[in-house]
Write a structure and sequence with these properties.
single chain; mainly alpha; two-stranded antiparallel ribbon; 2 strands
Length: 164
């Protein structure tokens, strides 16, 4: 990572932490919150790859863990997974495959970033059907926010703003 990417990770992380802290709505106490902070690590992953997305996810996840409202590992690991999920697509899929890349952003963001962390953590303290239900809420939320992230990414590209 270069200095520009580190600066962007910290700025995005701070924005995500603020969103996580002040714009979260508890849906199921202790397990699920709706928050626009899902967008931030996903966008960081789309811009800077798996390392940048994961680092941004750590910042946002720590804020979510400190805030409370959910079991602390869910926001921490969930936000890291959100950034990693879109970042791995950026790292692996070439720029020539634009449509495939966008589809993979949504699929990986929803499944790896949304479903897996919530399901794998909540399964330890709720029945499996409840864990799957909670994970599906985060799956749809992650899918929605990654879609918004793709729109923002396209706008940044059209404006000529690059991270590399």
């Amino acid at each position: 990572m270069n200095a520009k990417q580190i600066a962007i990770v910290t700025v995005l992380g701070a924005l995500g932490a603020l969103l996580r802290y002040f714009a979260a709505i508890v849906v199921i106490p202790g397990v699920v919150e709706l928050t626009p902070s899902f967008l931030i690590p996903q966008l960081a992953g789309m811009l800077m790859g798996s390392l940048g997305g994961s680092l941004c996810g750590v910042i946002v996840g720590v804020a979510g863990s400190i805030r409370g409202g959910e079991f602390p590992l869910i926001p921490l690991l969930g936000n890291v997974a959100l950034g990693f999920s879109t970042g791995i697509v950026k790292d692996v899929v070439s720029e020539e495959r634009k449509r495939m890349k966008k589809v993979l952003y949504v699929v990986s963001g929803a499944l790896i970033g949304g479903f897996l962390p919530t399901f794998l953590i909540s399964i330890f303290f709720v029945p499996i059907f409840a864990s799957a239900f909670y994970a599906l809420i985060d799956t749809f939320q992650a899918g929605f926010w990654v879609f918004i992230g793709i729109i923002i990414l396209e706008l940044l590209k059209k404006a000529g703003l690059t991270i590399d």
